[in-house]
C-alpha cells in the first residue's frame, strides 16, 4: 500500500508539471514561424545593406588614401562637396534625369499594362517581348545601344540615312546624350513596372467596370473614376521603388554608353561617386556623397508617405 501511495504521488507531481508547462498559443506559434522565416532575410539585410551604410556614413568623416591611411577631418568632406562644381553639376544632371525619367517610365509602363490587359491575339507574345529586356544584363544592353547609335556606322544612323534623313551625334552631343540614356533606361525598365501595374489592374474587380458600362460610362470615365483611384497603392509603390532604383542604379548603362560624357552631360551622381572612389581613390569623399544621397532618399520616402498616406485614399472625393 505504501509503494502504491508513493507511485500515485509521483504520478500526481508529474501530471502537475505537465499541466503547468507553458505552451505557445496558435498565434504565438505563427509569430515564431514567421520570425524564423524572416530571420535569414533580416540577417542578410543587416550584413549586406545595414553594415555597409554604417561604414559609408563613418568614412564620410575621414580622409582615406589608397594605402589604408585614415585621417579624421570632421565635416570637411561635406564642405568640399557643396563647393565642388563637378558635384553640383552632377546633382543638377541627376535631378533633370529623374524629372524626365520617372514620369516617362510611369506613363509608358501604365499604358503598356492597360494594353496587354486587353484580350487580343498573341497578347502573351507582346507581354514577353515587353519584359524581355529585363532578363538581359545592363552591360549588354548598353553595348547594343551604343553600337546602334554610333556615329556614321550605327544601325540607327544607317536606317535614317537610307531614308535620306541626316542623323545627329546621338551619344556625342551634350544636348542629346542624356536623353538617349533616358530613352534606353525606359525601354529597359518598362517591362518590369508594366507587370506590377498589370498585377494592380487585375486586383480591381470586374464588376465595377460592368456596372459603369451599364451606366453609360466611357473608357476615359472608367479610367478616371475606377482604374486610377484603385491603382493608387500600386502607383505609390512604383514611384517609390523606381526613384530609388534609378537614382542608385544605372551606372552600368552610363559607364558603357557614355562614361559620363560628353562634357559631363551624363555624369549622374552615382557615376560621380564611382569616379571619386575607384578612379581617384577619394573613398572618404565618395562616402560623404553616398551618405548625402541616402539622406535625400530618406527625405523623399518620408515625404511620399506623408503626401499619399502610403498610397491610401486621401479624401472622400477618391
From TrEMBL:
GO biological process, any: transmembrane transport
Identification of the protein by name: Suagr ABC transporter permease
Annotated compartments: Cell membrane
Native species: Actinocatenispora comari
Record's keyword terms, sorted: Cell membrane, Membrane, Transmembrane, Transmembrane helix, Transport
Lineage: Bacteria, Bacillati, Actinomycetota, Actinomycetes, Micromonosporales
Claim: Transmembrane helix is one of the keywords in the record: yes
Membrane topology listed for this record: Multi-pass membrane protein
Domain of life of the source: Bacteria
Pfam families hit by this protein: BPD_transp_1
Amino acid at each position: 500500500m505504501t509503494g502504491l501511495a508513493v507511485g500515485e504521488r509521483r504520478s500526481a507531481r508529474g501530471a502537475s508539471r505537465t499541466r503547468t508547462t507553458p505552451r505557445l498559443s496558435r498565434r504565438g506559434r505563427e509569430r515564431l514561424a514567421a520570425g524564423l522565416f524572416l530571420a535569414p532575410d533580416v540577417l542578410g539585410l543587416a550584413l549586406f545593406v545595414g553594415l555597409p551604410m554604417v561604414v559609408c556614413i563613418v568614412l564620410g568623416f575621414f580622409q582615406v588614401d589608397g594605402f589604408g591611411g585614415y585621417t579624421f577631418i570632421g565635416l570637411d568632406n561635406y564642405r568640399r562637396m557643396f563647393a565642388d562644381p563637378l558635384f553640383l553639376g552632377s546633382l543638377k544632371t541627376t535631378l533633370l534625369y529623374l524629372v524626365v525619367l520617372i514620369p516617362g517610365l510611369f506613363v509608358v509602363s501604365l499604358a503598356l499594362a492597360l494594353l496587354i490587359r486587353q484580350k487580343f491575339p498573341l497578347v502573351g507574345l507582346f507581354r514577353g517581348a515587353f519584359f524581355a529586356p529585363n532578363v538581359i544584363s545592363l552591360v549588354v544592353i548598353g553595348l547594343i545601344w551604343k553600337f546602334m547609335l554610333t556615329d556614321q556606322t550605327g544601325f540607327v544612323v544607317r536606317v535614317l540615312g537610307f531614308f535620306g534623313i541626316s542623323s545627329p551625334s546621338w551619344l556625342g552631343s551634350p544636348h542629346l546624350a542624356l536623353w538617349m540614356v533616358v530613352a534606353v533606361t525606359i525601354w529597359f525598365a518598362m517591362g518590369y513596372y508594366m507587370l506590377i501595374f498589370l498585377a494592380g489592374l487585375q486586383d480591381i474587380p470586374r464588376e465595377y467596370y460592368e456596372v459603369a458600362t451599364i451606366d453609360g460610362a466611357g473608357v476615359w470615365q472608367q479610367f478616371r473614376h475606377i482604374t486610377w483611384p484603385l491603382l493608387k497603392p500600386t502607383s505609390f509603390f512604383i514611384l517609390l521603388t523606381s526613384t530609388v532604383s534609378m537614382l542608385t542604379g544605372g551606372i552600368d548603362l552610363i559607364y558603357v554608353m557614355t562614361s559620363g560624357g560628353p562634357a559631363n552631360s551624363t555624369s549622374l551622381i552615382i557615376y560621380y561617386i564611382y569616379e571619386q572612389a575607384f578612379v581617384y581613390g577619394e573613398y572618404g569623399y565618395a562616402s560623404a556623397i553616398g551618405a548625402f544621397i541616402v539622406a535625400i532618399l530618406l527625405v523623399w520616402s518620408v515625404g511620399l508617405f506623408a503626401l499619399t498616406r502610403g498610397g491610401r485614399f486621401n479624401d472622400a472625393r477618391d
